[in-house]
Design brief:
The complex is a heterodimer. By secondary structure, chain A is α+β, with helices and mostly antiparallel strands. Chain B is built from 24 helices and 14 strands. The chains are: A alpha+beta, B alpha/beta. Chain B: InterPro entries: Sec-1-like_dom1 (IPR043154), Sec-1-like_dom3a (IPR043127), Sec1-like (IPR001619), Sec1-like_dom2 (IPR027482), Sec1-like_sf (IPR036045), VPS33_dom3b (IPR043155).
Chain lengths: 858, 618
């Protein structure tokens, strides 16, 4: 390999066989200008996956240097809490104004978890906005706590506190804080419990505390049990001085008072220690013990002003790193961050793919491809030779270069490796899979580069990036109020609006609403201006947020923009804006929504008030009437009474009259209707209803007289029955009583007389008026209908010509009709007759055809 | 339809979506299923999925709310109620479910109540109020989002029962809401419709809603080139006239005589010997009721012959039949003349087509025979004459003797009312004494209970007493009545009613050409607000039109003007036919599509407003 290759591996340190670790600088710390030093901090906590740093300066004198580590029992009274980005840029600071502060840590969603010395936990966002609080039990509050830990368990945040009485109390999820007591350490009340000598280990099933007491190791579980674990070390020790669990929770590392680093697997606790390594620092206890991924543990010793990190692996491999000021170690799932006053470094195991591509002398396809590309760029013929070597595994080589690229923080390195991948890709025959990978990886890496930028200071490794979802990453940006970046990431990655831009904007709007000093109008204006341009944004949700923040008028204003009435109306009701809810519901045209409001008002208001409210709008009123008709006829009548709608009220009695169980009941219902019609000055309906009452009474009498069913018949049917009984006189009176029209009466009587075959009576009836009220054709037709041709003919003679033809046709007298039409020389009439002719009427047809032809029609 | 190849819009494509929505609703409930149908939905939904399809989706049993009892044998996992989201359905569900309340909970299936087309909280609440046990019995209330159903390539309908009554009598605007959604759905597929016109009170309200919806949906989401030019929304009360006379098209007459429901007519099966009996359908299953055997005939464009005759005046159908019969005879005769193998082969290839033509010819000729007695009836002819009289401008001021005669002879109520409404409409309302005379007469003949029906009709605007004589002016300006010597020859739409051209259709036609500006005076006189609105459309999505100058030179190239006509309150088959005639006329290039709340006939309208009393016999 060429010399040039070497510089890739400059920062690599060998760590046993074919394992390398590398350390590189992430940032020059921006906080240098604040003149800080790690040793000044009473508290320093760093959020995982490249998260922010929160520090609390120790405003008291430093701990006395002499003596062993003193349990930190004195809490900080009024400290300043300062949040920095990983690049040391000041994010926010705020004064602590609650009780004495013990510890601050980060929750999984980047809230600040602050623990007071009374065990009370307070959650703040990183901008000092209080979120909520909970306690860790009475005992902690009574006796104070001496130590605590904030840990992650199944993507949730847990808290555990250690009281002065040496008891552990656990809250396994701060979102649902229930307190449990852990088991007690045997012989509990000894002062040798050191702050560094315990750790929380979360397994699939359980949450345990591993703790050392002198030279013993115990495991406490959350149902109060205690188990002694053999520490597995081969030599006697005075005791342990530090304990730390690996990121995967499968191993712990311990340091003895004699300076021996011990690594022990938790998967098989009865076996001995995996490794014991004498750090040769017997006088000094480590200041911090932290894992670097799962493959090595790092102890930090300070010795005569020099700061040494000793990294030890399970196979007793080791590396030293020296720093010239105090450091703080931040274990990550795949690496270790080292923060000092000047720099922020990352130590990680060199990823396998990086080894393949960049290790000196590597024969992996990716390594050849990288070399080929470099030669090609140097315009060297050797490019071709390397390419030939890699040709059989070109796809693998390309993938390796892509995979190696994402492991780099240095953009020039990323570019180099991507160029190699692109170079390899051009020679691939089937490149779609590779291309897709190339493009999407490139996109994500760009996002990572943006996050890692000094301005944002999120040094997320590829592994970390893959370990969390894009949504949670965006949530972290939102928690940092980096809305614009989050927005751009969403649109760059073309995420669906609901997961992406809409969500970000919604969060942004909540932030905006929290600006209490800005007026509702300004906030609404700003929010609407931004949100309106984005499709699929939910103003309803936005309004709900505003309401939750107590900004009602802002909420209403935002809700005004919600296009879906379905979302809008229920919220307006929730906000107590009934009036507006009602008008929005009406505007939507969705009656179901209107009913929602109506029923809500009905349940909320007294009946009287409710009815008053309902009347204000015609459409609402109509819908409520419809509802009442179906379910509450009684209320309906009240409604009409209130409105003084007498006519409507009257009509409610009519179905009642039909459902009545007796004649008096029926009459009384009708009488009620009459009164209402009278009130309403509805003379016509009043008269009709009065007539009906009269009719029923009349019919009752008739029933007595004729011992026949009359009640329930119509005027027409009653009359028909009377005529059928030849009660001419009664019928005549009856007709007058009910103002039946003459024509109606005549039609009826003619029909009945013909039916009764009372031909004389029929003729008498015809003559009863000077001019018959209905045409004589109806007499003829009636006679014909009941089979008396002679009578029919008799009337037919007196019918005028136009009607006569019609009449003849109806009576099927085609021949006569034809003659008449021919006589009248009327082609239309002839046509009418022809239309009626069937095949068997050929004689008539012929006659008509001839006549038509004669008249010049064909 | 004939014009389908001239245009890419085919409403039947919406069917697939509706089908998916329905089946998803069913699939979302676990295990084997029993369906409990709202009886009214059986028709529309059988258009989407027949019983065999439902069986494929694990439907094992079917019940109907009206005719079935709660089953005692519950060998299914889920019970799904498919019901309209309407108040009147609530008591029926409660009644059906009340039996379940006494059954042990463990042996009950999971009960789902699926509201069509959207979940209704008022129905939900009312159900629980009526049957408190329902709160526990019903596992979940859901929506079955099947809205408008395409009945034809050019017709979509909400199939909303009694939509006219709902809107104009009960003043419940739910239909408008569902129309808005249907219009939105159409716009999502065929682009935003730029020009909106409307006539009538509810048209205004609907347009407001459509425009608001349009504004709320950013253009990026509806990124589809416009296919429609005009949206014309008409409130049914603007044109009540057209519903009243008897429809005289083939399809219209089938509706008048037998009633068409969801493009299906049921006729006595014994008239159709040697034809397949109808398949199993929900109202026959488990209802325990045996109806007289019925033949279901599907009336849609899948049948070539029906497509040809449906829009013709009934008098013109006969010649088509005889033409087809001759054609068939000739073609079928070829089998004897065919000598060569190749000829035989050709003949055999044509066989299926010929046989299906023969089959449908037999069917539709039989249907025509069944209609004949109605049409040849003296009453029918006389009634027709009176209708024509009113429409052609005869005096309609006084009590009409023929109407009086019909009442005195107790002829069907709807027939009487249709004539009275027609008289009232052409006369611009009736004089108070005339109306009172009719009303009294009606009560004498049909009984006191009709006082409520008459009141309903008056409230819904069927009888007007205001005296505004606009019809004469409209008739002259829009040529609403044209005398024909021969009804089959004319190309004008007036031929649909043997002389009368439907007002709504003339208005739609004038919209496209020459434009409403030319009749603005008339539009002021015709009752109901006139509305015009525009929807903004990004330049690149607009329909390309040639400039005016070039259109003169190449008129044939000009894309057709496509309009969607929305009827609020229902449309008749005759009107649809008339619009199709316009679409199919070769010299104009305008195409019409129809969206309606339901298919309507005068009789159906009157029946919907009639009130039936629950009479107790004491």
């Amino acid at each position: 390999m060429t010399m040039a290759m070497q510089n890739f591996t400059d920062n690599w340190s060998p760590f046993g066989f074919d394992v390398y670790y590398r350390k590189f600088e992430l940032y020059q710390m921006g906080w240098q200008k604040f003149n800080v030093d790690i040793s000044d901090f009473a508290i320093i906590s760093v959020a995982k996956n490249g998260g922010n740093i929160v520090v609390v300066r120790d405003d008291r004198k430093k701990q006395p240097p002499s003596g062993p580590e003193v349990p930190h029992t004195t809490a900080l009274i009024r400290p300043n809490i300062v949040v920095f980005s990983a690049a040391g840029r000041l994010v926010w600071q705020f004064a602590w104004n609650s009780g004495p502060l013990m510890q601050i840590g980060w929750s999984t969603i980047n809230e600040l978890v602050c623990i007071q010395d009374d065990g009370r936990v307070l959650l703040y966002d990183m901008f000092g906005t209080f979120i909520r609080t909970f306690g860790t039990g009475q005992e902690a509050a009574d006796v104070r706590i001496t130590d605590c830990r904030i840990f992650e368990n199944k993507s949730q945040t847990g808290v555990i506190v250690l009281t002065e009485t040496r008891k552990f109390f656990l809250v396994s999820n701060i979102d649902n804080p229930t307190v449990r007591a852990m088991g007690d350490v045997p012989g509990g009340n000894t002062p040798s419990l050191f702050r560094r000598c315990w750790s929380v280990v979360c397994s699939e099933k359980d949450i345990n505390v591993y703790i050392t007491k002198d030279s013993d190791l115990y495991c406490l579980n959350k149902i109060g049990q205690v188990q002694e674990i053999p520490s597995g070390i081969s030599e006697n020790t005075k005791g342990f001085v530090a304990l730390s669990a690996s990121p995967n929770q499968k191993s712990i590392a311990l340091v003895t008072a004699e300076g021996v680093v011990v690594i022990k697997s938790l998967e098989d606790v009865d076996s001995g220690a995996v490794c014991q390594f004498d750090a040769k620092c017997p006088d000094n206890q480590p200041k911090q013990l932290a894992w670097c991924g799962n493959g090595a543990v790092v102890g930090y010793w300070e010795n005569n002003g020099s700061h040494i990190l000793l990294m030890v692996g399970p196979k007793k491999d080791w590396i030293n790193f020296r720093f010239d000021s105090s450091v703080h170690l931040v274990p990550e799932i795949d690496s270790l961050r080292v923060i000092t006053r000047d720099t922020h470094d990352l130590i990680q195991k060199v990823p396998a793919v990086t080894m393949q591509v960049m290790k000196v002398g590597s024969m992996a396809p990716g390594a050849y491809l990288l070399e080929a590309c470099r030669e090609y760029e140097a315009l060297s013929y050797k490019a071709d030779e390397y390419l030939k070597l890699v040709k059989p595994n070109l796809e693998e080589a390309t993938m390796q270069c892509i995979d190696a690229a994402v492991q780099e923080f240095e953009v020039s390195m990323q570019k180099l490796l991507f160029r190699a991948a692109a170079f390899g890709k051009t020679f691939l025959e089937n490149k779609t899979a590779v291309t897709d990978n190339f493009v999407s990886t490139c996109k994500y890496l760009r996002v990572l580069n943006a996050l890692r930028h000094y301005l944002y200071g999120m040094p997320v490794t590829w592994r970390q990036f893959q370990s969390e979802t894009i949504t949670s990453l965006l949530d972290r940006l939102v928690a940092r109020r980096q809305f614009e970046l989050a927005y751009r990431v969403c649109s760059y990655l073309e995420l669906p609006a609901s997961q992406g831009v809409s969500r970000i904007l919604l969060n942004w709007s909540s932030y905006k609403m929290n600006q209490r000093n800005e007026s509702d109008e300004d906030v609404a204006g700003a929010i609407i201006g931004k949100l309106e341009k984005t499709p699929g944004i939910s103003f309803a949700e936005c309004a709900r947020n505003a309401r939750a923040l107590g900004r009602l008028s802002l909420a209403v204003e935002l809700l005004e923009r919600e296009p879906s009435a379905q979302l809008q109306v229920p919220l307006l009701l929730e906000f107590g804006k009934d009036e507006l809810a009602l008008s929005k519901a009406i505007q939507s045209g969705n009656s179901d929504l209107v009913y929602d409001v109506i029923l809500y008002l009905k349940s909320k208001l007294g009946t009287a008030e409710f009815l008053m409210r309902i009347r204000s709008n015609r459409e609402v009123f109509a819908l409520f009437v419809k509802y009442c008709k179906e379910f509450n006829p009684k209320l309906l009548r009240d409604l009409f009474i209130q409105e003084d709608w007498r006519s409507e009220e009257a009509f409610t009695f009519i179905p009642e009259s039909f459902e009545a169980l007796s004649v008096p009941e029926q009459l009384s219902a009708l009488q009620n209707a009459v009164e209402r019609f009278d009130h309403a000055k509805d003379d016509f309906n009043k008269k009709i209803t009065e007539d009906q009452i009269k009719l029923i009474r009349h019919q009752v009498k008739l029933e007595e007289k004729f011992a026949k069913k009359f009640v329930g018949l119509t005027v027409h049917k009653t009359l028909e029955a009377l005529l059928q009984d030849s009660q001419w006189k009664l019928a005549e009176e009856f007709k007058k009583d009910y103002q039946m029209s003459d024509r109606h009466f005549w039609f009826l009587k003619v029909e009945v007389l013909a039916r009764l075959k009372q031909w004389e009576e029929l003729e008498k009836f015809m003559r009863s008026a000077r001019k018959p009220v209905i045409g004589l054709e109806h007499f003829a037709l009636a006679a014909h209908k009941y089979g008396n041709v002679v009578e029919a003919q008799k009337y037919l003679l007196k019918v005028d010509d136009e009607q006569k033809l019609r009449c003849m046709l109806k009576m099927g007298m085609l021949d006569e009709a034809a003659d008449l039409a021919i006589k009248q020389k009327d082609p239309v009439a002839m046509g009418a007759v022809l239309d009626k002719c069937r095949r068997e009427d050929s004689a008539v047809t012929a006659k008509l055809q001839a006549a038509k032809t004669g008249l010049g029609y064909t | 339809m004939v014009h389908i190849d001239r245009n890419v819009i085919n409403f039947l494509t919406f069917k697939e979506r509706a089908r998916k929505d329905l089946l998803k609703c069913i699939d979302d409930c676990p295990g084997t299923k029993a369906l409990v149908w709202d009886d009214y939905l059986i028709g529309p939904f059988s258009q989407l999925a027949d019983y065999s399809v439902l069986q494929d989706h694990q439907v094992t049993r079917m019940f109907t709310l009206a005719k079935s009892e709660f089953p005692s044998n519950m060998d299914f996992t889920s019970m799904i109620f498919l019901v309209r989201a309407e108040l009147k359905i609530v008591k029926r569900i409660a009644k059906f479910l009340s039996k379940a309340a006494s059954v042990k909970k463990a042996s009950l299936p999971k009960i789902y109540v699926c509201f069509v087309p959207a979940i209704s909280s008022v129905c939900q609440k009312a159900l629980i109020e009526n049957l408190p046990a329902a709160a526990q019995l019903v596992h979940e209330f859901r929506a079955c989002p099947v809205g408008a159903i395409p009945l034809e390539t050019d017709v979509m309908s909400l199939e909303h029962e009694n939509s006219f009554r709902g809107l104009f009598l009960e003043e419940d605007p739910s239909c408008l809401h569902h129309l808005t959604i249907a219009i939105k759905d159409i716009q999502k597929v065929h682009g935003v419709i730029p020009n909106i016109y409307g006539k009538g009170k509810y048209a205004k309200q609907l347009i407001d809603m459509v425009v608001k919806h349009g504004k709320d949906a950013p253009n990026s989401e509806w990124n589809i080139a416009c296919r429609f030019d005009n949206l014309f929304i008409i409130d049914r009360t603007v044109d009540l006239i057209t519903i009243m006379p008897t429809q005289l098209t083939y399809e219209g007459l089938i509706d008048e005589c037998f009633g068409i429901h969801q493009a299906t007519v049921r006729l006595p099966a014994d008239k159709f010997p040697n034809m397949g009996t109808s398949s199993k359908n929900p109202d026959q299953s488990e209802s325990g009721r045996k109806d007289a055997p019925e033949k279901k005939i599907i009336l849609n464009s899948s049948d070539e012959l029906f497509t040809e005759i449906r829009d013709l005046n009934f008098s013109a159908v006969g010649p088509v039949f005889s033409g087809k019969a001759k054609f068939l005879n000739a073609k079928l005769g070829e089998r004897f003349s065919a000598k060569e193998v190749a000829e035989m082969k050709e003949f055999v290839a044509k066989m299926p087509h010929l046989l299906s033509l023969k089959q449908s010819l037999t069917t539709f000729m039989t249907v025509a025979e069944l209609i004949k007695p109605f049409v040849n009836n003296d009453n029918f002819l006389e009634s027709l004459e009176v209708q024509q009289g009113f429409l052609s401008g005869q005096d309609a001021d006084k009590v009409h003797p023929y109407i009086e005669q019909l009442i005195a002879q107790c002829e069907p109520f709807d027939q009487v009312i249709r004539l009275i409404v027609l008289q009232s409409e052409v006369n611009g309302g009736l004089k108070q004494p005339v109306l009172a005379h009719y009303k009294r007469d009606i009560i004498h003949s049909y009984g006191f209970e009709e006082i409520v029906s008459l009141n309903n009709m008056e409230k819904a605007g069927l009888f007007r007493t205001a005296n505004k004589k606009w019809f004469r002016m409209a008739r002259d300006a829009l040529k609403l009545f044209v005398e024909h010597s021969d009804s089959s020859a004319s190309k004008d739409i007036s031929y649909i009613f043997s002389g009368y051209a439907p007002l709504s259709v003339r208005l739609a036609k004038h919209l496209v050409f020459p434009g409403w500006r030319t009749i603005s005076d008339l539009l002021e006189v015709i009752p109901g607000e006139k509305i015009e609105a525009k929807q903004k459309i990004p330049e690149h999505l607009r329909k390309r039109r040639n400039s005016i100058s070039s259109s003169v030179s190449s008129a044939g190239e000009e894309p057709a003007v496509v309009s969607l006509v929305v009827y609020i309150g229902g449309v008749t088959y005759a009107e649809v036919s008339a619009l199709r005639h316009l679409s199919n006329q070769e010299h104009t290039s305008s195409i019409f599509y129809v969206l309606t709340t339901e298919m309507l006939s005068g009789t159906a309208l009157i029946k919907s407003l009639k009130e039936t009393m629950k009479t107790t016999v004491f």
